[in-house]
Write the structure tokens for this entry.
Amino acid sequence: MPECVAYHDVAASIASQSTYSYLALNSEELDTDGMHDPASNNSRITAKTAGRYILTAKLRWGANAGSYREAVFRKNGSTLLAGRTLWPNTNVAWPTTLSLLADLALNDYIELGVRQESGASINIEAESGLTPYISAVLLNDDVYADIYHSQNQAISSGGLWRFVTFDSELADADGMHDPSVNPTRLTIPFDGWYAFWGQVSWAANTSSLRGIMLQVDGTEDRTSGGHTNTPSISTPWLQQIFTFIHLTQGQYVELGVRQATGSNLDVEFVSGLSPVLRAARLAQLAT
């Protein structure tokens, strides 16, 4: 099975700037398909087998309370596919993770980019087993849905979760989504374990919190994962969620968001980036 784990064994200094710096990865723990070269173009994880991949990254920023930290996955040197923005708001070392569930063609490559605008350079720290690492694994199951919304969605302010509507599909061979009937839902066609990945980009606003979660069968006390954060400067920013859930046929999952700015705030449409919800059955896991 194609899989790869690559990392960097020295700290990387990241300048304060609005552009992304793409991290070198000079070492490997695992690489069964020649996906990474520690010496040449070592920022890249390259798909040597076309298919559907789960990619994850973990890294830790050095202590600094200023501004934001952002990590992204970029495809083929130009296209952002995933991102996560965090706001430390306190002077401590700050670990973060990033994930992506996506189809990759033969020789597509993924890089991990980071940026921060604190006014000073900050290290991406190096620690064995922890930071910075990228993992990639090819899935071997065809049950998959990839849905998105093709315009901005206004999210009302308040503590209640609002569920994102999806009007378009890139993949849905098993009828998990209907753009006209219950367009917030992905409905499970077969029993089993599923990977779910959702992502939104919020419009710029510094007030109060933003949250993201996944909900099963419309019951808030069955949420999976979820996190809430508060921005410190006014800039568009990315939230995502990634988890595994065991489900039975007919259950459904929705992507929930919330914000408390005191007025409507858009989840913005960004092609290929927001808002997106994807689900893939995991044939590797026994049911």
